[in-house]
Amino acid sequence: MSATRTMKLITGILEAILAIPVLGAIIIVSNGWMPLVIMLVLHIITLVLAVRVQGPLAGSIVGIVASALGWIPFVGWILHAAAAIVLLVEAFSRRLQRR
After folding, report:
1. In sequence order, which residues have a C-beta less than 8 Å from that of residue 89 and are 6 or more positions away?
2. 60-97: pLDDT as tens digits
3. Which residues constitute the domain of residue 50?
4. Are 11 and 86 in contact (CB under 8 A)?
5. What angle do CA 29, 31, 37 make, to 5 degrees?
6. How many domains would you assign to the chain?
7. Judging by beta carbons within 10 Å of its beta carbon (0-12, 13-18, 19+), is residue 2 exposed, middle or buried?
8. Using one digit for the tens of pLDDT, what is the confidence trace for 20-69?
9. What one-character-per-residue DSSP string does the chain give?
10. Which residues are CB-contacts of 4 (< 8 A; sequence separation ≥ 6)?
């Protein structure tokens, strides 16, 4: 499994956890919004890896936006869900598997 695919899978799963309405909010608020900073760093790393292999970038970009705007209650929830879906689809994409 490539590093890019692994990172997309990890960030996709973490975004899916943060997209669970009450649980995600508790995780983010109880840790002083640090999970958003950590996710931002992970998404940037994933983006750099995807650029190197010329893979799909949309999931990482949506994830970066989700991390930047995740502190807004309902907007954050929608963005985390969207990022999780796009990242997981990209992680299992045949285009990325060939690299």
Report:
1. 59
2. 999 999 999 988 989 999 999 999 999 999 999 876 55
3. 3-97
4. no
5. 95
6. 1
7. middle
8. 999 999 999 999 999 999 999 999 999 999 999 999 999 999 999 999 99
9. --HHHHHHHHHHHHHHHHTSHHHHHHHHHHTTTHHHHHHHHHHHHHHHHHHHTT---HHHHHHHHHHHHTTSHHHHHHHHHHHHHHHHHHHT-HHHHT-
10. 46, 49, 50, 52, 53, 55, 96, 99
Query: Which two tokens mark 15?
Result: 């975004």
CA-based max dimension of the chain: 40
Nearest to 79 by CA among 6, 18, 26: 18
65 is written with which tokens?
């936006």
Total residues belonging to the chain: 99
**Token pair for 88:** 């997981």
